[in-house]
Task: structure prediction
Amino acid sequence: MKKKVISLVLSSLLALGALAGCGSSSDTAEVAGAQRAEETTEQTADGAQEAADNAEAAGEVTVIHAATSGNPRPFTYIDEEGNLVGQNIELIKAVFDKLPQYELEIEVTEFPSIFTGIDAGIYDLGVNNIAKNPDREAKYLFTDPEMVNHYIAVVNKNIDITSIEDLTELAGTKYVGTAGNDKTTVVEKYNEEHPDKQITIDYTEAELLSQLYDVESGKEDFLIIDAPMYNGYYGPEFKFDVNTFDLTNVKSSSYSYFIVGKDNTKLAEDINAALKQVIEEGISTEIDIKYLGEDYSPIITE
Result:
């Protein structure tokens, strides 16, 4: 039988309510006080964690509600038949195939709602090629990396450069990107460090495909993108007439992660153990080649 963790909490509260109706007035007051204390305790992350542990020990299956935006391709997207697919999606399913104590359910939502949903307890897990930044690290637990990644710059062909060492080659140009995006953060940091050689940032909520077309047309000068995303999908699929430059001199290899609530340590530990198996067994390599064209699996050590 599949039961959500919340059912254990509700059962405890109902049992306390029944006890409160059976004693003397003083007993009732004591029980009511205990009930209020119980309710407060069970609202904490420790109480939720204990309930999850008890459910696992009892052999019950806990439903894990995961959220993704269904974008960007090839990490998470809706295919022509209406199915949610992608490297992140297939990988997280392979991970949960190793975790019979959980049942994974994935919902498509807006990207910002992944984070607010975890904050509100609506979602347990974020699956969206998520990178670290200080604000996110302060609020969420990151699993072990699910992919090692490096950036490339996609540059309009009329920009007269032959290489990029530290982005100074692009001073005076226009960058297009989304606020809060890890690539945009790279440009913002560059501007902080080079006040006399600024890059204009055009913040946008437009989809990445639209941004790439804007770079190709000359409306924007450049953007920064994950190498597996461009080389595995956008470049081959749309054949943009642009120049690309490796940015390993600008930004060292980075990683992508799954995220969970800050206090959901048990879930993070279980995902990490299963993810390590998926990588060691070569399942991650097969998924990466299928969606990204080559293997971007990280090496996970203890």
Observations:
- The first helix runs from residue 5 to 20.
- The CA atoms of residues 27 and 285 lie 62 Å apart.
- Confidence is low (pLDDT under 50) at residues 1-42.
- The longest strand covers residues 254-261.
